[in-house]
Amino acid sequence: MKRNMGITDRVIRLIIAAVIIGAGIYYKNCWGLVAIIPLLTGLWGYCPLYTLLGIKTCKVK
Fold this sequence. Notes:
Blueprint: H1 7-27, H2 36-44, H3 48-53
Helix pairs in contact: 1-2
């Protein structure tokens, strides 16, 4: 898996994941589990959907 996400994209995904987790805890429901997707893609720097769509925000070759 080659990285296909830049730093800005990764930070935005991690912030979104934190907000979703916080909302899940605040409202005490299982929707916070949805945060796993942006959290993992933000940490790994790889998004399978970007590969399918041919998008690459990472500037390193």
